[in-house]
Amino acid sequence: MSVHNADVAAVFEEIADLLEIEGSNPFRIRAYRNAARTLRDLPREVGAMLGEGEDLTELPGIGDDLAAKIKEVVETGTATALEEHRKKVPKSLTELLRIPGIGPKRVKALYHDLGIRRLDQLQKAAQGGRVRSLKGFGEKTERYILNQLKERTGEQKRFQLAVATPYTEALIAYLKESPGVKQVVAAGSYRRAKETIGDLDLLVTAVPGSPVMDRFVSYPEVEEILVQGPTKASVRLACKLQVDVRVVPEDSYGAALQYFTGSKAHSVTLRQLAQQRGLKLNEYGLFKGDRSVAGATEESVYSAVGLPWIPPELRENRGEFDAARAGRLPALVELADLRGDLHAHTKATDGRNSMREMAEAARACGLEYLAITDHSRRLTMAKGLDPKRLFEQLEEIDRLNAMLSGITVLKGIEVDILEDGSLDLPDEDLCRLDLVVGAIHSHFRLSRQKQTERILRAMDHPCFTIFAHPSGRLINERAPYDVDMARLLRHARERGCFLEVNAHPVRLDLTDTDCRMAREEGVMLSIDSDAHSVFDLENLRYGVGQARRGWLEKKDILNTRTLRELRTLLKRTMVKT
Ligand code: DGT
Ligand code: CA
Ligand code: CA
Questions:
Q1: What is the number of structural domains in the chain?
Q2: What is the rounded distance in angstroms from the CA atom of residue 35 to the CA atom of residue 364?
Q3: Which of 121, 152, 183 is the last residue of a domain?
Q4: Going by CA atoms, what residue is nearest to atom 19 of ligand 1?
Q5: Each residue of 547-576: b (16+ CB within 10 Å) or e?
Q6: Rounded to the nearest whole angstrom, what is the distance from the C-alpha of residue 243 to the centroid of ligand 3?
Q7: Which of 95, 163, 185, 189 has most ligand 1 atoms within 8 Å of CB, for mutation?
Q8: What is the pTM of this model?
Q9: What does the pLDDT look like over 310-329, one tens digit per residue?
Q10: Checking DSSP bridges between strand 498-502 and strand 466-467, what pairing results, if any?
Q11: CATH number, domain at 212?
Protein backbone atom coordinates (compact mmCIF):
# COMPACT_ATOMS: atom_id res chain seq x y z
CA MET A 1 0.00 0.00 0.00
CA SER A 2 1.42 3.35 -0.86
CA VAL A 3 -0.16 6.38 0.72
CA HIS A 4 0.38 9.71 -1.02
CA ASN A 5 0.40 13.16 0.47
CA ALA A 6 -3.00 13.84 -1.09
CA ASP A 7 -4.44 10.80 0.74
CA VAL A 8 -3.17 12.05 4.08
CA ALA A 9 -4.48 15.53 3.26
CA ALA A 10 -7.89 14.03 2.43
CA VAL A 11 -8.01 12.30 5.83
CA PHE A 12 -7.26 15.61 7.55
CA GLU A 13 -9.82 17.47 5.47
CA GLU A 14 -12.45 14.93 6.38
CA ILE A 15 -11.60 15.20 10.06
CA ALA A 16 -11.88 18.99 9.73
CA ASP A 17 -15.26 18.65 7.97
CA LEU A 18 -16.58 16.36 10.67
CA LEU A 19 -15.26 18.61 13.45
CA GLU A 20 -16.97 21.54 11.79
CA ILE A 21 -20.27 19.68 11.57
CA GLU A 22 -19.86 18.75 15.23
CA GLY A 23 -19.40 22.43 16.05
CA SER A 24 -15.97 21.86 17.48
CA ASN A 25 -13.17 24.31 18.39
CA PRO A 26 -12.35 26.47 15.31
CA PHE A 27 -8.62 26.40 16.08
CA ARG A 28 -8.52 22.64 15.92
CA ILE A 29 -10.40 22.70 12.65
CA ARG A 30 -8.01 25.23 11.20
CA ALA A 31 -5.00 23.19 12.35
CA TYR A 32 -6.23 20.22 10.33
CA ARG A 33 -6.97 22.35 7.27
CA ASN A 34 -3.55 24.02 7.41
CA ALA A 35 -1.86 20.66 7.77
CA ALA A 36 -3.78 19.37 4.77
CA ARG A 37 -2.60 22.33 2.71
CA THR A 38 1.00 21.86 3.86
CA LEU A 39 0.84 18.25 2.78
CA ARG A 40 -0.63 19.05 -0.63
CA ASP A 41 2.08 21.64 -1.28
CA LEU A 42 4.89 19.43 -0.12
CA PRO A 43 7.31 18.55 -2.93
CA ARG A 44 8.23 15.19 -1.37
CA GLU A 45 6.19 12.23 -0.21
CA VAL A 46 5.76 12.16 3.58
CA GLY A 47 6.00 8.36 3.42
CA ALA A 48 9.50 8.64 2.01
CA MET A 49 10.43 11.33 4.54
CA LEU A 50 9.34 9.07 7.38
CA GLY A 51 11.27 6.19 5.80
CA GLU A 52 14.41 8.30 5.97
CA GLY A 53 13.80 9.17 9.59
CA GLU A 54 13.04 12.85 8.99
CA ASP A 55 11.28 14.85 11.67
CA LEU A 56 7.88 15.96 10.34
CA THR A 57 7.37 18.48 13.13
CA GLU A 58 9.77 20.73 11.25
CA LEU A 59 7.09 21.23 8.60
CA PRO A 60 4.93 24.36 9.01
CA GLY A 61 1.86 23.76 11.14
CA ILE A 62 2.78 20.18 12.05
CA GLY A 63 3.22 19.46 15.76
CA ASP A 64 3.77 16.18 17.55
CA ASP A 65 0.14 15.22 17.42
CA LEU A 66 -0.28 15.79 13.69
CA ALA A 67 3.07 14.17 12.93
CA ALA A 68 1.92 11.05 14.76
CA LYS A 69 -1.33 11.10 12.78
CA ILE A 70 0.51 11.44 9.48
CA LYS A 71 2.59 8.41 10.43
CA GLU A 72 -0.56 6.50 11.30
CA VAL A 73 -2.20 7.33 7.97
CA VAL A 74 0.95 6.40 6.05
CA GLU A 75 1.04 3.06 7.85
CA THR A 76 -2.64 2.15 7.97
CA GLY A 77 -4.35 4.25 5.32
CA THR A 78 -6.58 5.91 7.88
CA ALA A 79 -6.54 7.58 11.28
CA THR A 80 -8.23 6.41 14.47
CA ALA A 81 -9.31 10.01 15.03
CA LEU A 82 -11.17 9.98 11.71
CA GLU A 83 -12.90 6.71 12.52
CA GLU A 84 -13.92 8.12 15.92
CA HIS A 85 -15.45 11.22 14.37
CA ARG A 86 -17.17 9.17 11.68
CA LYS A 87 -18.90 7.32 14.50
CA LYS A 88 -20.12 10.55 16.05
CA VAL A 89 -21.55 12.19 12.96
CA PRO A 90 -24.38 10.48 11.09
CA LYS A 91 -22.80 9.02 7.99
CA SER A 92 -25.46 10.49 5.79
CA LEU A 93 -24.34 14.01 6.75
CA THR A 94 -21.11 13.56 4.86
CA GLU A 95 -23.24 12.76 1.79
CA LEU A 96 -24.71 16.24 2.10
CA LEU A 97 -21.19 17.59 1.79
CA ARG A 98 -20.94 16.15 -1.69
CA ILE A 99 -23.61 18.52 -2.98
CA PRO A 100 -21.90 21.37 -4.74
CA GLY A 101 -22.36 24.57 -2.80
CA ILE A 102 -22.80 22.86 0.56
CA GLY A 103 -19.85 22.97 2.88
CA PRO A 104 -19.55 21.81 6.47
CA LYS A 105 -20.90 25.09 7.86
CA ARG A 106 -24.07 24.71 5.88
CA VAL A 107 -24.36 21.04 6.76
CA LYS A 108 -24.07 22.02 10.39
CA ALA A 109 -26.86 24.59 10.05
CA LEU A 110 -29.08 22.15 8.15
CA TYR A 111 -28.50 19.45 10.74
CA HIS A 112 -28.76 21.49 13.92
CA ASP A 113 -31.50 23.90 12.89
CA LEU A 114 -33.66 21.69 10.68
CA GLY A 115 -32.68 18.17 11.75
CA ILE A 116 -31.64 17.35 8.19
CA ARG A 117 -29.37 14.35 7.91
CA ARG A 118 -30.05 13.00 4.47
CA LEU A 119 -30.42 14.17 0.90
CA ASP A 120 -34.11 13.29 0.75
CA GLN A 121 -34.75 15.34 3.88
CA LEU A 122 -32.83 18.24 2.40
CA GLN A 123 -34.94 18.01 -0.71
CA LYS A 124 -38.18 18.00 1.28
CA ALA A 125 -37.04 20.98 3.32
CA ALA A 126 -35.97 22.93 0.26
CA GLN A 127 -39.23 22.13 -1.51
CA GLY A 128 -41.11 23.34 1.54
CA GLY A 129 -39.19 26.60 1.52
CA ARG A 130 -37.62 25.93 4.90
CA VAL A 131 -34.00 26.15 3.82
CA ARG A 132 -34.08 29.77 2.64
CA SER A 133 -34.77 31.07 6.14
CA LEU A 134 -31.57 29.60 7.58
CA LYS A 135 -28.70 31.92 8.28
CA GLY A 136 -26.27 31.89 5.37
CA PHE A 137 -28.73 30.43 2.86
CA GLY A 138 -31.43 32.47 1.13
CA GLU A 139 -33.78 31.81 -1.73
CA LYS A 140 -31.15 31.57 -4.42
CA THR A 141 -29.16 28.96 -2.53
CA GLU A 142 -32.30 27.00 -1.87
CA ARG A 143 -33.17 26.89 -5.58
CA TYR A 144 -29.62 25.92 -6.39
CA ILE A 145 -29.73 23.06 -3.88
CA LEU A 146 -33.00 21.82 -5.31
CA ASN A 147 -31.54 21.70 -8.80
CA GLN A 148 -28.51 19.83 -7.56
CA LEU A 149 -30.69 17.34 -5.76
CA LYS A 150 -32.90 16.65 -8.75
CA GLU A 151 -29.83 15.29 -10.46
CA ARG A 152 -29.16 12.85 -7.68
CA THR A 153 -32.43 11.53 -6.39
CA GLY A 154 -32.47 8.59 -8.80
CA GLU A 155 -29.17 7.20 -7.61
CA GLN A 156 -29.90 7.88 -3.96
CA LYS A 157 -32.91 5.65 -3.76
CA ARG A 158 -32.54 2.92 -1.17
CA PHE A 159 -35.06 0.16 -0.76
CA GLN A 160 -37.00 -0.28 2.43
CA LEU A 161 -36.07 -3.64 3.86
CA ALA A 162 -39.71 -4.72 3.87
CA VAL A 163 -40.10 -3.80 0.20
CA ALA A 164 -37.00 -5.76 -0.75
CA THR A 165 -37.92 -8.81 1.31
CA PRO A 166 -40.55 -10.44 -0.94
CA TYR A 167 -38.36 -9.93 -4.04
CA THR A 168 -35.43 -11.43 -2.16
CA GLU A 169 -37.31 -14.45 -0.89
CA ALA A 170 -38.74 -15.20 -4.34
CA LEU A 171 -35.36 -14.92 -6.02
CA ILE A 172 -33.69 -17.14 -3.42
CA ALA A 173 -36.35 -19.79 -3.91
CA TYR A 174 -35.86 -19.58 -7.68
CA LEU A 175 -32.06 -19.94 -7.44
CA LYS A 176 -32.36 -22.86 -5.05
CA GLU A 177 -34.09 -24.84 -7.76
CA SER A 178 -31.04 -24.57 -9.97
CA PRO A 179 -29.19 -27.91 -10.46
CA GLY A 180 -26.05 -28.27 -8.35
CA VAL A 181 -26.89 -25.41 -6.01
CA LYS A 182 -26.28 -26.08 -2.33
CA GLN A 183 -26.90 -22.84 -0.49
CA VAL A 184 -28.37 -19.47 -1.39
CA VAL A 185 -28.27 -16.80 1.26
CA ALA A 186 -28.72 -13.03 1.41
CA ALA A 187 -25.71 -11.14 2.81
CA GLY A 188 -24.94 -7.40 2.91
CA SER A 189 -27.12 -4.86 4.64
CA TYR A 190 -30.11 -7.15 4.09
CA ARG A 191 -28.66 -9.74 6.45
CA ARG A 192 -27.68 -7.04 8.91
CA ALA A 193 -31.35 -6.00 8.90
CA LYS A 194 -30.71 -2.38 8.04
CA GLU A 195 -33.94 -0.45 7.57
CA THR A 196 -33.04 0.26 3.96
CA ILE A 197 -30.72 -1.51 1.56
CA GLY A 198 -28.72 -0.05 -1.30
CA ASP A 199 -28.62 -3.31 -3.20
CA LEU A 200 -29.09 -6.98 -2.48
CA ASP A 201 -26.07 -9.27 -2.14
CA LEU A 202 -26.69 -12.98 -2.60
CA LEU A 203 -24.16 -15.68 -1.91
CA VAL A 204 -24.42 -19.06 -3.60
CA THR A 205 -22.51 -22.29 -3.11
CA ALA A 206 -22.77 -24.82 -5.90
CA VAL A 207 -20.96 -27.80 -7.36
CA PRO A 208 -18.41 -26.87 -10.05
CA GLY A 209 -20.01 -26.32 -13.44
CA SER A 210 -23.45 -25.53 -12.05
CA PRO A 211 -25.56 -23.43 -14.44
CA VAL A 212 -26.75 -21.19 -11.60
CA MET A 213 -25.43 -17.95 -13.15
CA ASP A 214 -27.22 -18.57 -16.43
CA ARG A 215 -30.33 -19.27 -14.47
CA PHE A 216 -29.85 -16.08 -12.45
CA VAL A 217 -29.54 -13.75 -15.43
CA SER A 218 -32.52 -15.38 -17.13
CA TYR A 219 -34.75 -14.78 -14.10
CA PRO A 220 -37.95 -13.38 -15.63
CA GLU A 221 -37.83 -10.24 -13.50
CA VAL A 222 -34.37 -9.22 -14.70
CA GLU A 223 -34.60 -5.91 -16.53
CA GLU A 224 -30.92 -5.35 -17.23
CA ILE A 225 -27.75 -7.42 -16.86
CA LEU A 226 -25.01 -5.19 -15.51
CA VAL A 227 -22.18 -7.72 -15.09
CA GLN A 228 -22.04 -11.38 -15.95
CA GLY A 229 -19.19 -13.74 -15.21
CA PRO A 230 -18.83 -17.33 -13.98
CA THR A 231 -18.66 -16.43 -10.27
CA LYS A 232 -19.98 -12.89 -10.18
CA ALA A 233 -23.02 -11.24 -11.73
CA SER A 234 -25.13 -8.14 -11.18
CA VAL A 235 -28.55 -7.36 -12.53
CA ARG A 236 -31.26 -4.82 -12.06
CA LEU A 237 -34.73 -6.21 -11.54
CA ALA A 238 -37.83 -4.63 -13.01
CA CYS A 239 -38.63 -3.27 -9.54
CA LYS A 240 -35.27 -1.39 -9.83
CA LEU A 241 -33.61 -3.42 -7.08
CA GLN A 242 -30.00 -4.20 -8.00
CA VAL A 243 -28.84 -7.71 -7.13
CA ASP A 244 -25.23 -8.89 -6.88
CA VAL A 245 -24.67 -12.64 -6.88
CA ARG A 246 -21.42 -14.37 -5.98
CA VAL A 247 -20.80 -18.08 -6.36
CA VAL A 248 -18.15 -19.53 -4.06
CA PRO A 249 -16.84 -23.03 -3.32
CA GLU A 250 -18.36 -24.72 -0.30
CA ASP A 251 -15.21 -24.57 1.80
CA SER A 252 -15.16 -20.76 1.38
CA TYR A 253 -18.80 -20.35 2.34
CA GLY A 254 -18.20 -18.99 5.86
CA ALA A 255 -15.44 -16.58 4.85
CA ALA A 256 -17.45 -15.33 1.88
CA LEU A 257 -20.58 -14.93 3.96
CA GLN A 258 -18.60 -12.98 6.52
CA TYR A 259 -17.04 -10.79 3.84
CA PHE A 260 -20.25 -10.02 1.96
CA THR A 261 -22.29 -9.49 5.08
CA GLY A 262 -20.03 -6.63 6.10
CA SER A 263 -20.36 -4.06 7.22
CA LYS A 264 -17.17 -2.92 5.66
CA ALA A 265 -16.11 -1.22 8.91
CA HIS A 266 -16.68 -4.44 10.84
CA SER A 267 -14.78 -6.55 8.33
CA VAL A 268 -11.83 -4.18 8.25
CA THR A 269 -11.42 -4.57 12.00
CA LEU A 270 -11.82 -8.33 11.80
CA ARG A 271 -9.13 -8.49 9.14
CA GLN A 272 -6.80 -6.47 11.37
CA LEU A 273 -7.39 -8.92 14.23
CA ALA A 274 -6.49 -11.74 11.88
CA GLN A 275 -3.34 -9.90 10.80
CA GLN A 276 -2.30 -9.53 14.43
CA ARG A 277 -2.32 -13.32 14.62
CA GLY A 278 -0.29 -13.66 11.46
CA LEU A 279 -3.35 -14.69 9.47
CA LYS A 280 -4.76 -13.37 6.23
CA LEU A 281 -8.53 -13.06 5.88
CA ASN A 282 -10.33 -12.60 2.60
CA GLU A 283 -13.55 -13.79 0.98
CA TYR A 284 -11.99 -17.19 0.20
CA GLY A 285 -10.89 -18.10 3.69
CA LEU A 286 -8.53 -17.49 6.55
CA PHE A 287 -4.95 -18.38 5.67
CA LYS A 288 -1.65 -18.96 7.40
CA GLY A 289 0.72 -18.53 4.51
CA ASP A 290 -0.92 -20.59 1.78
CA ARG A 291 -2.63 -22.96 4.15
CA SER A 292 -6.32 -22.46 4.85
CA VAL A 293 -7.05 -22.55 8.57
CA ALA A 294 -10.75 -21.66 8.52
CA GLY A 295 -13.51 -20.53 6.19
CA ALA A 296 -16.19 -23.17 5.73
CA THR A 297 -18.38 -21.56 8.40
CA GLU A 298 -18.53 -18.06 9.86
CA GLU A 299 -18.04 -19.57 13.31
CA SER A 300 -14.71 -21.04 12.20
CA VAL A 301 -13.53 -17.64 10.98
CA TYR A 302 -14.44 -15.80 14.18
CA SER A 303 -13.15 -18.58 16.37
CA ALA A 304 -9.77 -18.62 14.59
CA VAL A 305 -9.26 -15.01 15.72
CA GLY A 306 -10.36 -15.87 19.24
CA LEU A 307 -13.90 -14.56 19.08
CA PRO A 308 -17.38 -16.01 19.39
CA TRP A 309 -19.65 -15.66 16.36
CA ILE A 310 -21.09 -12.16 16.19
CA PRO A 311 -24.71 -11.74 15.03
CA PRO A 312 -24.95 -9.83 11.71
CA GLU A 313 -27.12 -7.06 13.20
CA LEU A 314 -24.22 -6.07 15.47
CA ARG A 315 -21.60 -5.92 12.74
CA GLU A 316 -21.20 -2.17 12.45
CA ASN A 317 -17.92 -1.75 14.32
CA ARG A 318 -19.73 -0.07 17.17
CA GLY A 319 -18.24 -1.95 20.09
CA GLU A 320 -19.17 -5.51 19.13
CA PHE A 321 -15.52 -6.64 19.13
CA ASP A 322 -14.95 -5.43 22.69
CA ALA A 323 -18.18 -7.08 23.80
CA ALA A 324 -17.25 -10.31 22.03
CA ARG A 325 -13.79 -10.39 23.59
CA ALA A 326 -15.26 -9.76 27.03
CA GLY A 327 -17.87 -12.49 26.55
CA ARG A 328 -20.57 -9.84 26.82
CA LEU A 329 -22.34 -10.04 23.48
CA PRO A 330 -26.05 -9.51 24.05
CA ALA A 331 -28.40 -12.47 23.65
CA LEU A 332 -30.51 -10.63 21.09
CA VAL A 333 -34.29 -10.67 21.25
CA GLU A 334 -36.04 -12.96 18.74
CA LEU A 335 -39.40 -12.78 17.06
CA ALA A 336 -40.49 -15.88 18.96
CA ASP A 337 -39.86 -14.05 22.24
CA LEU A 338 -42.76 -11.67 21.60
CA ARG A 339 -45.90 -12.61 23.48
CA GLY A 340 -48.04 -9.71 22.45
CA ASP A 341 -48.45 -6.53 20.50
CA LEU A 342 -49.33 -3.28 22.22
CA HIS A 343 -50.25 -1.02 19.31
CA ALA A 344 -52.90 -1.93 16.72
CA HIS A 345 -55.84 -0.28 14.98
CA THR A 346 -59.26 -1.41 13.84
CA LYS A 347 -61.78 -0.08 11.39
CA ALA A 348 -63.32 1.94 14.20
CA THR A 349 -60.67 4.48 13.14
CA ASP A 350 -58.27 4.10 10.22
CA GLY A 351 -57.66 0.34 10.34
CA ARG A 352 -59.11 -2.04 7.76
CA ASN A 353 -60.17 -5.00 9.90
CA SER A 354 -62.59 -5.54 12.74
CA MET A 355 -61.40 -6.00 16.28
CA ARG A 356 -62.27 -9.67 16.13
CA GLU A 357 -60.32 -10.18 12.90
CA MET A 358 -57.30 -8.43 14.40
CA ALA A 359 -57.46 -10.53 17.57
CA GLU A 360 -57.75 -13.79 15.66
CA ALA A 361 -54.87 -12.82 13.38
CA ALA A 362 -52.71 -12.00 16.41
CA ARG A 363 -53.55 -15.38 17.91
CA ALA A 364 -52.62 -17.05 14.62
CA CYS A 365 -49.21 -15.31 14.86
CA GLY A 366 -48.72 -17.00 18.23
CA LEU A 367 -49.38 -13.91 20.32
CA GLU A 368 -51.12 -14.11 23.69
CA TYR A 369 -52.32 -10.54 23.91
CA LEU A 370 -53.16 -7.67 21.60
CA ALA A 371 -53.82 -4.09 22.65
CA ILE A 372 -56.37 -2.24 20.57
CA THR A 373 -55.11 1.33 20.38
CA ASP A 374 -57.24 3.30 17.97
CA HIS A 375 -56.72 7.01 17.45
CA SER A 376 -58.18 9.73 19.66
CA ARG A 377 -60.63 12.42 18.54
CA ARG A 378 -58.08 15.05 17.51
CA LEU A 379 -57.13 12.93 14.53
CA THR A 380 -60.34 13.64 12.67
CA MET A 381 -58.93 12.36 9.38
CA ALA A 382 -58.60 8.97 10.98
CA LYS A 383 -62.07 9.18 12.57
CA GLY A 384 -60.46 9.40 16.02
CA LEU A 385 -62.49 8.22 19.01
CA ASP A 386 -64.27 10.59 21.38
CA PRO A 387 -65.10 9.44 24.93
CA LYS A 388 -68.45 8.01 23.87
CA ARG A 389 -67.06 5.89 21.03
CA LEU A 390 -64.14 4.83 23.19
CA PHE A 391 -66.60 3.65 25.83
CA GLU A 392 -68.44 1.59 23.20
CA GLN A 393 -65.18 0.08 22.06
CA LEU A 394 -64.32 -0.94 25.63
CA GLU A 395 -67.66 -2.74 25.90
CA GLU A 396 -66.93 -4.48 22.62
CA ILE A 397 -63.56 -5.61 24.01
CA ASP A 398 -65.28 -7.08 27.09
CA ARG A 399 -67.71 -8.98 24.87
CA LEU A 400 -64.93 -10.22 22.60
CA ASN A 401 -62.71 -11.37 25.48
CA ALA A 402 -65.67 -13.35 26.84
CA MET A 403 -65.97 -15.16 23.51
CA LEU A 404 -62.34 -15.69 22.47
CA SER A 405 -59.87 -18.12 23.95
CA GLY A 406 -56.12 -18.16 23.48
CA ILE A 407 -55.82 -14.38 23.10
CA THR A 408 -56.57 -11.47 25.39
CA VAL A 409 -57.55 -8.13 23.96
CA LEU A 410 -56.22 -5.23 26.01
CA LYS A 411 -57.91 -1.86 26.27
CA GLY A 412 -55.76 0.87 24.86
CA ILE A 413 -55.74 4.10 22.92
CA GLU A 414 -53.24 5.88 20.71
CA VAL A 415 -53.89 9.26 22.18
CA ASP A 416 -52.64 12.45 20.58
CA ILE A 417 -50.15 14.44 22.59
CA LEU A 418 -51.40 17.97 22.08
CA GLU A 419 -49.14 20.95 21.49
CA ASP A 420 -48.90 21.76 25.20
CA GLY A 421 -48.20 18.16 26.22
CA SER A 422 -51.70 17.42 27.47
CA LEU A 423 -53.49 14.34 26.20
CA ASP A 424 -56.43 14.39 23.80
CA LEU A 425 -58.95 12.63 26.11
CA PRO A 426 -60.20 13.31 29.65
CA ASP A 427 -58.36 11.65 32.53
CA GLU A 428 -61.38 9.68 33.61
CA ASP A 429 -61.48 7.93 30.22
CA LEU A 430 -57.75 7.28 30.04
CA CYS A 431 -57.70 5.81 33.54
CA ARG A 432 -60.18 3.12 32.52
CA LEU A 433 -57.65 1.63 30.06
CA ASP A 434 -55.02 -1.08 30.40
CA LEU A 435 -52.51 1.12 28.63
CA VAL A 436 -52.19 4.53 27.04
CA VAL A 437 -50.01 4.86 23.98
CA GLY A 438 -49.18 8.52 23.39
CA ALA A 439 -48.06 9.88 20.04
CA ILE A 440 -47.23 13.09 18.21
CA HIS A 441 -49.24 13.70 15.05
CA SER A 442 -49.01 17.48 14.78
CA HIS A 443 -46.68 20.42 15.47
CA PHE A 444 -43.61 18.57 14.28
CA ARG A 445 -41.57 21.73 13.97
CA LEU A 446 -41.45 23.01 17.53
CA SER A 447 -38.04 23.97 18.82
CA ARG A 448 -36.02 21.19 20.38
CA GLN A 449 -36.72 22.53 23.85
CA LYS A 450 -40.47 22.95 23.32
CA GLN A 451 -40.83 19.55 21.67
CA THR A 452 -38.90 17.85 24.45
CA GLU A 453 -40.89 19.57 27.20
CA ARG A 454 -44.15 18.75 25.45
CA ILE A 455 -43.33 15.04 25.56
CA LEU A 456 -41.93 15.13 29.09
CA ARG A 457 -45.21 16.64 30.21
CA ALA A 458 -47.18 13.90 28.45
CA MET A 459 -45.09 11.31 30.26
CA ASP A 460 -45.96 12.98 33.53
CA HIS A 461 -49.60 12.05 33.03
CA PRO A 462 -50.26 9.23 35.51
CA CYS A 463 -51.95 7.08 32.85
CA PHE A 464 -49.30 7.46 30.14
CA THR A 465 -47.61 4.14 29.37
CA ILE A 466 -45.88 4.01 25.99
CA PHE A 467 -44.49 6.76 23.79
CA ALA A 468 -45.17 5.64 20.23
CA HIS A 469 -42.83 6.13 17.22
CA PRO A 470 -40.69 8.45 19.33
CA SER A 471 -38.66 10.27 16.67
CA GLY A 472 -41.55 10.79 14.25
CA ARG A 473 -39.39 10.09 11.23
CA LEU A 474 -40.78 8.48 8.10
CA ILE A 475 -38.05 6.79 6.13
CA ASN A 476 -37.34 8.72 2.90
CA GLU A 477 -40.30 10.99 3.63
CA ARG A 478 -40.05 12.96 6.82
CA ALA A 479 -37.17 13.93 9.04
CA PRO A 480 -37.45 13.21 12.75
CA TYR A 481 -38.64 16.13 14.81
CA ASP A 482 -36.03 17.79 16.92
CA VAL A 483 -36.07 16.33 20.38
CA ASP A 484 -33.65 15.50 23.19
CA MET A 485 -33.98 11.73 23.11
CA ALA A 486 -31.56 11.14 25.98
CA ARG A 487 -33.71 13.33 28.18
CA LEU A 488 -36.91 11.56 27.14
CA LEU A 489 -35.33 8.24 27.99
CA ARG A 490 -34.19 9.36 31.42
CA HIS A 491 -37.61 10.76 32.13
CA ALA A 492 -39.31 7.58 30.97
CA ARG A 493 -37.18 5.60 33.37
CA GLU A 494 -38.01 7.91 36.24
CA ARG A 495 -41.72 7.82 35.44
CA GLY A 496 -41.81 4.06 34.88
CA CYS A 497 -43.08 4.38 31.31
CA PHE A 498 -41.83 2.94 28.06
CA LEU A 499 -40.86 3.84 24.52
CA GLU A 500 -41.82 2.05 21.37
CA VAL A 501 -39.90 0.37 18.60
CA ASN A 502 -42.53 0.87 15.95
CA ALA A 503 -42.20 -1.99 13.48
CA HIS A 504 -43.89 -0.32 10.55
CA PRO A 505 -41.36 -0.51 7.69
CA VAL A 506 -41.60 3.21 6.96
CA ARG A 507 -41.11 4.11 10.60
CA LEU A 508 -38.76 1.63 12.31
CA ASP A 509 -38.74 4.14 15.10
CA LEU A 510 -36.77 4.17 17.49
CA THR A 511 -33.68 3.94 15.36
CA ASP A 512 -30.98 1.38 16.13
CA THR A 513 -28.74 3.84 17.95
CA ASP A 514 -31.62 5.20 20.01
CA CYS A 515 -32.59 1.63 20.94
CA ARG A 516 -29.11 1.18 22.22
CA MET A 517 -29.28 4.38 24.20
CA ALA A 518 -32.53 3.13 25.75
CA ARG A 519 -30.82 -0.06 26.79
CA GLU A 520 -28.01 1.91 28.38
CA GLU A 521 -30.53 4.11 30.19
CA GLY A 522 -32.37 1.03 31.43
CA VAL A 523 -35.67 1.85 29.72
CA MET A 524 -37.77 -1.04 28.49
CA LEU A 525 -39.11 -0.82 24.95
CA SER A 526 -42.18 -2.27 23.33
CA ILE A 527 -41.88 -3.72 19.81
CA ASP A 528 -45.24 -2.96 18.23
CA SER A 529 -46.70 -3.52 14.79
CA ASP A 530 -48.93 -0.40 14.68
CA ALA A 531 -51.01 -2.71 12.47
CA HIS A 532 -53.76 -1.15 10.39
CA SER A 533 -54.73 -4.54 8.96
CA VAL A 534 -54.25 -8.20 9.78
CA PHE A 535 -51.36 -8.38 7.31
CA ASP A 536 -49.41 -5.69 9.13
CA LEU A 537 -48.80 -8.02 12.08
CA GLU A 538 -46.12 -9.56 9.85
CA ASN A 539 -44.15 -6.36 10.28
CA LEU A 540 -43.19 -7.30 13.83
CA ARG A 541 -40.18 -9.09 12.35
CA TYR A 542 -38.74 -5.78 11.13
CA GLY A 543 -39.23 -4.25 14.54
CA VAL A 544 -37.33 -7.18 16.02
CA GLY A 545 -34.55 -6.64 13.44
CA GLN A 546 -34.34 -3.01 14.44
CA ALA A 547 -34.24 -3.90 18.14
CA ARG A 548 -31.49 -6.42 17.46
CA ARG A 549 -29.48 -3.74 15.67
CA GLY A 550 -29.92 -1.76 18.89
CA TRP A 551 -28.38 -4.60 20.96
CA LEU A 552 -31.64 -5.35 22.75
CA GLU A 553 -32.29 -8.55 24.62
CA LYS A 554 -35.51 -10.27 25.54
CA LYS A 555 -35.40 -8.76 28.99
CA ASP A 556 -35.30 -5.24 27.50
CA ILE A 557 -38.59 -5.74 25.69
CA LEU A 558 -41.87 -5.10 27.46
CA ASN A 559 -44.00 -7.36 25.29
CA THR A 560 -41.85 -10.43 25.84
CA ARG A 561 -43.48 -10.55 29.29
CA THR A 562 -46.38 -12.79 30.17
CA LEU A 563 -49.71 -11.02 30.39
CA ARG A 564 -49.53 -11.19 34.13
CA GLU A 565 -46.07 -9.66 34.31
CA LEU A 566 -47.10 -7.05 31.78
CA ARG A 567 -50.08 -5.99 33.84
CA THR A 568 -47.83 -5.47 36.84
CA LEU A 569 -45.42 -3.36 34.82
CA LEU A 570 -48.22 -1.27 33.37
CA LYS A 571 -49.83 -0.77 36.73
CA ARG A 572 -46.62 0.43 38.27
CA THR A 573 -46.67 3.29 35.81
CA MET A 574 -50.21 4.17 36.66
CA VAL A 575 -49.66 4.57 40.39
CA LYS A 576 -46.55 6.72 39.96
CA THR A 577 -47.87 10.24 40.07
P1 DGT B 1 -25.92 -1.26 1.02
O2 DGT B 1 -26.00 -2.17 -0.16
O3 DGT B 1 -25.51 0.12 0.66
O4 DGT B 1 -27.18 -1.24 1.82
O5 DGT B 1 -24.78 -1.79 2.02
P6 DGT B 1 -23.99 -3.18 2.02
O7 DGT B 1 -23.36 -3.30 3.36
O8 DGT B 1 -24.85 -4.29 1.57
O9 DGT B 1 -22.80 -2.88 1.02
P10 DGT B 1 -22.47 -3.42 -0.46
O11 DGT B 1 -23.65 -3.97 -1.16
O12 DGT B 1 -21.74 -2.32 -1.13
O13 DGT B 1 -21.42 -4.57 -0.20
C14 DGT B 1 -21.83 -5.75 0.43
C15 DGT B 1 -20.80 -6.16 1.42
O16 DGT B 1 -19.56 -6.48 0.74
C17 DGT B 1 -20.41 -5.10 2.41
O18 DGT B 1 -21.29 -5.06 3.52
C19 DGT B 1 -19.03 -5.54 2.81
C20 DGT B 1 -18.48 -6.12 1.54
N21 DGT B 1 -17.66 -5.12 0.86
C22 DGT B 1 -17.96 -4.36 -0.19
N23 DGT B 1 -16.95 -3.56 -0.52
C24 DGT B 1 -15.96 -3.82 0.36
C25 DGT B 1 -14.64 -3.33 0.57
O26 DGT B 1 -14.15 -2.45 -0.15
N27 DGT B 1 -13.94 -3.88 1.62
C28 DGT B 1 -14.45 -4.84 2.43
N29 DGT B 1 -13.74 -5.32 3.44
N30 DGT B 1 -15.69 -5.31 2.25
C31 DGT B 1 -16.43 -4.81 1.24
CA1 CA C 1 -25.88 -4.39 -0.46
CA1 CA D 1 -23.62 -4.99 -3.40
A1: 4
A2: 64
A3: 152
A4: 262
A5: bbbbbbbbebbbbbbeeeebbebbeebbee
A6: 7
A7: 189
A8: 0.76
A9: 999 999 999 999 999 999 99
A10: parallel
A11: 3.30.460.10
